[in-house]
């Protein structure tokens, strides 16, 4: 995009915390073709705001690289926006649900009760904290998030988490926040809530 940015894709391929693809044909969410998918996406954003507070408001549709479901862009140490892959979201609710459920069954994604909300919630979580954000609260929270990540990696008894969360600390954060909002609570989701509150993430 001709700018210094780093992105986080809620995708099915590893390495999404370093998205190098393009973001083109940006459009408003209302252009989403499937009504059920649009409704589920808007509800997921509202739910995030209700549970963890209003944060990133700039959520758009865009043409992204194939295989990338969504991307959160940080620029100059701040979150700039979230772009959802219009090709993926325009498949409609039925197809998106089926694909996310495959991610749960295969053990790739961290399980939630809201497959349609997964990608947008994951990207909203990247916007609240990721290792490229440079705000004072984000930096302070980062130390606690890193410590929690280490503890979580070493815990062989945790349940419900997918392999994708093991990619790096950014994906751990995004998937665990998604579990916090839409999944089964545990000591990690409780801690995530505390960190969000303490640092106003
Ligand atoms: Zn991600």
Low-confidence stretches: 1-15
Tally the beta strands: 5
Count, helices:
7
Structural class: alpha+beta
Bound molecules: zinc ion
Q: What is the domain total for the residues?
A: 1
Strand order of the largest sheet: 1-4-5-3-2
Give the ordered list of helices and strands.
Answer: EEHEEEHHHHHH
User: In one word, what is the shape?
Assistant: globular
Folded structure, characterized:
By secondary structure, this protein is of the alpha+beta class. It has one domain. The chain is built from seven helices and five strands; from the N terminus they run ββαβββαααααα. The protein has helices spanning 35-52, 86-89, 93-105, 118-128, 136-154, 169-182, 187-198; strands spanning 6-9, 24-27, 59-63, 70-75, 78-85. The chain has a five-stranded mixed sheet with strand order 1-4-5-3-2. α4 packs across α6 (169-182), α5 (136-154) runs antiparallel to α7 (187-198) and α6 (169-182) crosses α7 (187-198). The radius of gyration is 15 Å and the shape is globular. The structure holds zinc ion. The site of zinc ion has 8 residues, from β1, α4 and α6.
